[in-house]
Amino acid sequence: MAPRKRTVALIAAALVLVSSSTAYGAHERAGGPGAGGGVRSITPITEVYTYGQKVAAVAVEYADTVNPHTLDRRTFTVSDTIYNFRFNPIEDLPKMAERTVTRVYTNSGPTTRADHRSVRGRFVIVELDPADTGGWTVIVSKCPTFLCTVKVNPDLPTTIVQRKDVHAQPGRGKGKGPVLAKAAPHRTLRMTEEPVNLMVDQFTYGSFLSGGMVLPYHYHLPKNYDPRRKYPLMVVLPGHGMGWDGDNTGVQIAADIPATAWLQPQWTGSREDVIVLAPQNQRVGAVAETDLLVKMMDQFVKDFAVDTDRVYGTTVSYGSQLLWQAFAARPGLFTAGLVTGGFQVGAAQATAIAAAGTPVWITHGVNDHLLNISLARNSRQALQDAHRAAGRTPEQIADLVRYTEYGNEAFTLPDYHAAYGPTYADRDILRWLLGQR
Q1: What pLDDT, in 10s, does the model give residues 212-258?
Q2: 365, HSE (Cβ side, Cα atoms, 13 Å)
Q3: With bands split at pLDDT 50, 70 and 90, how would you rate the model's confidence at 37?
Q4: Can you name the CATH fold of 200-435?
């Protein structure tokens, strides 16, 4: 779900902030007069954590190969916005706080290294603590109804200060080496390049048009994708605020973890290759959206090597309405579903789900402030009753209808509507979903 509609003043402030910001590459060059002349570019590096995308590191490029032995965590300070669209008014976007630098090393390109070790290169990578309050990249986009949509900020406010001299590799391996850029503790530098978005940049954009309606989507194919094989398909249906509003394409991948998690064994507990499909429906009503979604999926399955016996749906909040409706409209299209913080299933939908024998796992926060826990409990009861009416045993029903409630202590961020947080932290649930046939 998106945050509640702000006042007209807040919306105006958001538009002013976005329209007045300067595009990457149009800023004053970082290595201009007074900066030492050695800084060539500054690139933000983002990563999607449990509750969304943050600036995870900054890459500073110099004119020559950097001596890593002269660098430490005090060489740079990084500041970023404290704004979080879940909790803060848009006026907080310009409010900055210092980030915690965790590692500093050199690299041959503007990206992080898994081993966090220096290799020969012109880039200094300044890694940041994901537990910091600041650094979120998703902001309010539009408030077309009483609910708002969100988007990725097109011009991140992240800044960096170089507080110590940065040296080149020394000649003959002796000494610190010549100075590439002198310390400039009073000079604040902004990002000059487009972000490098870890995982998110690996997704491909597509769109589907039917009956005058367009459905944007992003998808990810396995690294060694082979069209002669068959792969499980994970369909990620996002919350209301991540629906397409005309200019927020792609936010459904960045706003929270469910899309990128399936690319990472440390999340799923599995090294199996999975195709991930993340549609971004316009919010025009569940029936029309589901009809378009099903048509798009039919085409996608024709175009790619999908194992149609292993098509899974995973949802956040509003996305549950589309999955419930798809279960009923096309029984057997989905193999199983994972519904987090969702809406209540309809009686006819529950009957259709039971008739198809589709397994579902429902998770919900006990103190969900947007969708009361009663909706999840009612869904569980409706599905159990439908399976019982279909003649299934208690043991069969317990296997087909799984249910988990989370207390506040399960959330690492106090958004108790975001049940996907503790859900995706539980590999057993993700392995269960991927294991259904």
Answers
A1: 999 999 999 999 999 999 999 999 999 999 999 999 999 999 999 99
A2: 23
A3: low
A4: Rossmann fold (3.40.50)
pLDDT over threshold 60, residue 21: no
8-195 carries CATH number 3.40.1050.10: no
Angle of CA points 424, 226, 293, to nearest 5°: 55
The ranges assigned to domains in the chain are: 8-195, 200-435
Domains 8-195 and 200-435 share a fold: no
